[in-house]
UniProtKB/TrEMBL annotation:
Top-level division of the source organism's lineage: Bacteria
Species name: Sphingomonas gei
DUF418 domain mapped to chain residues: 239-397
UniProt xrefs under InterPro entries: Bact_Transport_Assoc, DUF418
Keywords linked to the UniProt accession: Membrane, Transmembrane, Transmembrane helix
Protein's name according to its UniProt entry: DUF418 domain-containing protein
Pfam family, one: DUF418
Transmembrane segments annotated in the record for this chain: 21-40, 60-88, 148-170, 222-239, 259-281, 301-318, 330-352, 358-375
Length: 408
């Protein structure tokens, strides 16, 4: 993919078009999963029996997402976060700046954005987690490529060990009330309370979100941190190897896609069938949807990178719009939260709990259309997306010039 080679942007830095395109796909794709959290009760995210329908089109929506998208889009973001971390550090060192100072300023402000997003807008924030894990990942950036991959694989093993505690707890009958709330079949009264809450006003939702999620980043760091750190290390390795730079021969991308998806896709199909045949029982979800998917996600994510870079046509209209969406991924991620909470929560249109699972996806496609339609024209007039500009200005301690086109 020749378009993936670095290009000079309007503010003197070199960008990788391949990273922007992959990031654009990720920012669109992650909404396929997040929309369930925006529009349905919490347990429905993993368990379609909990709410939103589990037959026909609703089951098909769950099945496609489970096999192809769930965890993979988040993983793409994590790979790209690690790659970008490495690029920013390298550019800082090349310009004579302290890479550590630049990095930790960026992470500190990202943490601030993430906490504001988590506490004030939506409980599904990922920015806080990325900021905390990114602080840890920085110290590992100088490892050789093969050690990045080896350490990442070991961390995936640690994640599987942590995740295995969930089906073990179910088997032993421990913590069933909490697990039913998140992946099982909560009592109808609890579902009704959650729906009533999110159909209420902002000043009712805000204290409830604070009460439940004030300290969420800490247990999330412990439980998901090893997996996320592994993905960031894999992203650094993918950048150094030329994979994320779009520098591999097309035959190599095709070979990796065949190998990665040839192994992982059939395994995902088998797990999906197991969970469906078990009628989404709590143990089947804990084992088949939660634990056994962890070692399958990295090859699925690598396959996604290969597929995107194989399909992206240099100079194509869709490729350019995806790249623009990726350059503004921070803004577009926050924009989807603002749009979707307005649509689904009571201080907006109050659609929470009113749509079945498959009916959520026209909303997704409409948001996609908005992101793809506005990102490229914005970057034709401005050097950064709005939140990218604010983040950059705060991290550098001075307001950055905004007007003027970004690179094409």
């Amino acid at each position: 993919m020749n378009a993936a080679l670095p290009s000079n942007d309007a503010h003197g830095q070199r960008r990788l078009a391949s990273l922007d395109v992959v990031r654009g796909v990720a920012v669109l794709g992650i909404l396929l999963l997040n929309i369930v959290s925006f529009g349905l009760p919490e347990a429905a995210y993993l368990n379609p029996r909990a709410y939103g329908g589990w037959h026909g089109a609703d089951l098909a929506a769950w099945l496609v997402n489970f096999i192809v998208f769930d965890g993979k889009m988040r993983g793409l973001f994590s790979f790209l976060f690690g790659a970008s971390l490495l690029l920013v550090a390298e550019r800082a060192e090349a310009s004579g700046q302290s890479a550590a100072t630049v990095h930790y300023r960026r992470m500190a402000w990202l943490l601030g954005f993430g906490l504001a997003h988590l506490w004030l807008v939506w409980h599904g924030d990922i920015l806080t987690h990325y900021a905390l894990v990114g602080m840890l990942a920085f110290g590992l950036r100088d490892l050789p490529t093969h050690r990045l991959v080896t350490l990442g694989a070991l961390l995936i093993g640690v994640s599987v060990f942590f995740f295995a505690a969930v089906p073990i707890a179910v088997h032993q009958g421990q913590g069933l009330a909490a697990l039913n709330r998140t992946m099982g079949m909560p009592p109808a009264a609890e579902i009704a309370r959650e729906i009533a809450l999110y159909r209420s006003g902002y000043m009712s939702i805000l204290p409830a979100r604070w009460a439940e999620h004030a300290t969420t980043p800490l247990p999330m760091l412990w439980f998901y941190g090893p997996e996320t750190l592994a993905y960031m290390l894999f992203g650094m390795a993918a950048l150094r190897s030329g994979m994320l730079r779009g520098e591999w021969p097309r035959a190599r991308y095709r070979r990796w896609l065949r190998i990665c998806w040839g192994v992982a896709l059939p395994a995902y199909v088998a797990l999906a069938l197991y969970v469906i045949l078990a009628q989404f029982g709590l143990f089947s979800l804990a084992l088949g949807s939660w634990t056994l998917t962890a070692p399958l996600r990295p090859p699925m994510i690598a396959g996604w990178i290969c597929l995107i870079l194989l399909l992206a046509r240099p100079g194509g209209a869709l490729t350019e719009r995806l790249a623009a969406a990726g350059r503004m991924a921070f803004t577009n991620y926050l924009l989807t939260s603002l749009i979707c909470t307005t649509l689904f929560y009571g201080y907006g249109l109050g659609w929470f709990g009113q749509l079945s699972r498959w009916q959520l996806y026209p909303v997704v496609f409409a948001v996609w259309a908005l992101i793809l339609s506005w990102s490229k024209p914005w970057l034709a007039r401005f050097r950064f997306g709005p939140f990218e500009w604010l983040w950059r200005s705060l991290a550098r301690g001075q307001w950055q010039r905004l007007r003027g086109p970004a690179s094409v």
